[in-house]
Amino acid sequence: MKYIYKIVLAITAVLCFGQNLAANEQVELKEHFLKKIDEIILIVAKKEFTKDERNGKIVKSLTPMFDFELMAKLSLGNRWKDLSDTEKEKFVALYVERMKQSYSSKIDAYKDEKVEIKKVEQAKEDRITLVTDLVSKTEKLEIAYKFHKPKKPIASKDSWLIYDVEILGVSILKTDIAQFKEFLHTKSMSELMDALAKQS
Length: 200
Prior knowledge:
- With 200 residues, the protein is an alpha+beta fold.
- It has six helices and five strands; from the N terminus they run ααααβββββαα.
- The radius of gyration is 20 Å and the shape is globular.
- The termini are far apart.
């Protein structure tokens, strides 16, 4: 009986330790995210920057927090494995540039909005979702940032990386998946890359 009691205590201790680690990671991620938001708000507020200078600084600030490369891979679904190494490299470069331009231009348009974290969800050990409100004087816009933790650290990247963003429940990644699938139903990968190049 004592042996069983010791086992139960040991398991409980391990579970509590794991929960504490998860809670600590959530707190650290929240703090890092809010710090990054403050950094970007300061960039947007600087009137002495030209639009191109401001967007360049926004991209530089955001890049370590986003896994654009993984987003590029996931956006093609099963098509990804059919690409040559050269095609994969080219597609990732085009996708990353497109996403950087898209995010920087959207953020550049923000004026007096505030970001509030509503809740933190952690369905898996290596997945965390920060559900936030973008609050303006007239409305609230719910935006959920989905993070994953790579098994191995990635050079020049944060330990937790955003791989999808949901705006009012609409996933940017799933939207890309649907659009690319529809495009490739009638056109070639080369034509898709040409279209992405025009958006950059």
